[in-house]
UniProtKB/TrEMBL annotation:
Belongs to the bacterial solute-binding protein 5 family. InterPro entries: Peptide/Ni-bd, SBP_5, SBP_5_dom. Its main location: periplasm. GO terms for cellular component: ATP-binding cassette (ABC) transporter complex; outer membrane-bounded periplasmic space. The lineage of its organism: Bacteria, Pseudomonadati, Pseudomonadota, Alphaproteobacteria, Hyphomicrobiales. The keyword Signal applies. This is Dipeptide-binding ABC transporter, periplasmic substrate-binding component. It is found in: Periplasm. It holds the Pfam family SBP_bac_5.
Length: 581
């Protein structure tokens, strides 16, 4: 493999491997590829000063290329689109964060079957539900090992204490871990109404947990397969608390999942290693690297160069060339997603439904789809995707009529309106280029006399700021379903419990909220479907969002990648993945 490398690249790879304390014998083998160079002198000068100067190139490209071709170790490099907000999945809602934590380091009581929205046994090997639907009893899988890392060595297997700790810390406001991170809101847990749903968490014995609910909750099992319900090690948490290092739980994660956390270089590289005692079997790849690459064009260049094996969210303009490249293969499927522009319905003039509906009629959604997705998306009518059960086909979308929209604003008494449109700084499956979409909306609104300022922030800050109840203007965001249930869109994004969190419109409509609450408690899919269809009618009438698009999910990768299964939930998980040379 070294014939394709320049002496400089070989030298850089040598430096990288040495600095990262990789097996010395591999270093010795490198001498054969440095003819005429004073290899021993180079080796002797490696030290702490050089370690501090290592670049992302060394960690994510030269290292990966070397290790992928080595007989003793196999490294998979994923060109991630952004940085995680942290590594405790209970604290966040972004897919980027879940990929770096929930889908690598952790497991849950139930898991989603690969490539589906069906649940299957995870850390719970079996469960029973009482006749009244209020008690769930879980039998834990015996012999599940937590990861051993440089920062913690567990002394016991998974037990009921870990499950109780993982859920109780999010549920009880007086729990010592409830506010361990400044500003922690347990956004997903709270936004789904879990604090008011759970009656009790009970440890029946070391391997049995009982959860009692106050009311029936049809999607409850699917909810427990979601990232926020990841199971942590209470033993690790107790040690951190005793040492006064509680924040480390969000910085140095430890779980039962397929990969153990090794280290994170801020905004550059995350490194993992295969969990050798993983209950579902050790992975075929030994090392996993997230090479954080925010620019889609750069991700593509790295993929073509073999510097990463798989990338998310390609530019629409690049997809055809990716499909034509014999060294690549491309997976695609309809995404379980929606992109939207959420008005802050508590702030004038967006508190008036007439104003929101006027603005919606001014947006040329087809132009956004054409410019941003080049045909790989469709304009959105409803807040749930058309591939999801209970989608209401009878609802008519807003027509693009700028002159009508202008008159509607005038009739509402709104003139000379200035507003902000927030544009995401990262690509997501539902919105590949929010800046471009915002520019098109800006031009559309200018036609009806509305002046738009486009604003953005770093991704974690964007997510945090956009939750504020007094946020100004309208924010571009979106959602990929986390459990395949309509509740995960309608209640999670638009319910009253989610105001100040996932509900970026800050919209609490009692009629809508009552419908989705009843749907959660209903016993049949038919009854739930009817209620969700009615809720979509209310949503369209009140227009807290401009629904923008539903996109295809496209995943390009090197042709030698095997075992990757595209998820309808939009996550990137690498258990079961292999590199075949």
């Amino acid at each position: 493999m070294w014939k394709n490398f320049s002496p400089r690249q070989i030298s850089e790879a040598t430096y990288c491997i040495a600095t990262l304390n990789v097996v010395p014998s591999v270093l010795d083998r490198m001498e054969n590829f440095l003819p005429g160079r004073k290899y021993e002198n180079k080796k002797a000068k490696l030290g702490s000063k050089l370690m501090k100067k290592l670049t992302t190139l060394f960690a994510a490209t030269a290292l990966a290329t070397l290790m992928a071709g080595s007989a003793w170790s196999k490294t998979f490099v994923y060109c991630s689109e952004g940085s995680p907000e942290g590594f405790d999945p209970g604290l966040y809602t972004a897919g980027t964060t879940f990929d770096a934590s929930a889908h690598t380091v952790y497991n849950r009581l139930l898991e989603f079957k690969k490539g589906t929205t069906e649940t299957e046994a995870g850390l719970a090997e079996s469960w029973t539900i009482s006749d009244d639907g209020l008690e769930y009893t879980f039998k834990l899988r015996p012999g599940v090992k937590f990861q051993t890392t440089e920062f913690f060595t567990p002394t016991r297997d998974l037990n009921a204490d870990d499950v109780i700790f993982s859920l109780e810390r999010q549920w009880k406001s007086d729990h010592p871990w409830h506010g361990y991170v400044s500003g922690a809101s347990w956004e997903y847990f709270s936004g789904m109404g879990m604090p008011d749903l759970i009656e009790s968490l009970e440890k029946v014995d070391d391997m049995t947990v009982k959860i009692k609910l106050k009311r029936r909750e049809a999607p409850f099992l699917a909810n427990l397969a979601m990232p926020f319900a990841s199971i942590m090690s209470k033993e690790y948490a107790d040690k951190l608390e005793a040492d006064g290092k509680m924040n480390q739980l969000n910085q140095m994660p430890l779980g039962t999942g397929p990969f153990a956390f090794v280290g994170y270089q801020q905004d550059a590289v995350i490194r993992y290693k295969a969990h050798p005692d993983y209950w579902a079997g050790k992975q075929k790849i030994d090392d996993l690297v997230f090479s954080i690459t925010t620019d889609a064009a750069v991700r593509y260049q790295k993929l073509k160069a073999g510097e990463c094996h798989l990338m998310p969210y390609p530019n629409a303009a690049d997809v055809e060339s990716m499909k034509a490249d014999p060294e690549l293969k491309v997976m695609e499927q309809a995404g379980l997603n929606v992109a939207y522009l959420a008005y802050n319905t508590t702030q004038a003039p967006f508190d008036k439904v007439e104003v929101r509906k006027a603005l919606n009629k001014a947006i040329n959604k087809q132009a956004i789809v054409d410019a941003v997705f080049q045909g790989q998306a469709t304009p959105a009518t409803n807040p749930i995707p058309p591939t999801m059960w209970s989608y209401n086909d009878n609802i008519e979308d807003d027509t693009y009529e700028p002159e009508v929209a202008k008159k509607m604003l005038e009739d509402a008494g709104v003139t000379d309106l200035s507003m902000k449109v927030w544009a995401m700084p990262v690509a997501r499956p539902y919105m590949l280029n929010a800046r471009r979409a915002a520019e098109l909306i800006q031009a559309d609104f200018a036609k009806i006399g509305v002046d738009v300022e486009i604003v953005s922030y770093e991704w974690a800050e964007y997510l945090e700021r956009s939750k504020a109840k007094d946020r100004d203007g309208a924010v571009i965001l979106g959602w990929t379903g986390d459990n395949g249930d309509p509740d995960n869109f309608l209640d999670t994004l638009l319910g009253c419990d989610a105001v100040g969190g996932n509900n970026r419109a800050q919209w609490c409509n009692q009629e809508f909220d009552d419908l989705v609450t009843k749907a959660k408690e209903a016993s049949s899919v038919e009854e739930r479907t009817k209620l969700y269809e009615e809720a979509q009618v209310v949503f369209k009438r009140e227009a807290p969002w401009a629904t923008l698009d539903h996109s295809l999910s496209i995943v390009p990768m090197r042709k030698n990648v095997e075992g990757f299964v595209q998820s309808p939930l939009g996550d990137f998980a690498f258990d079961g993945v292999d590199i075949v040379e």
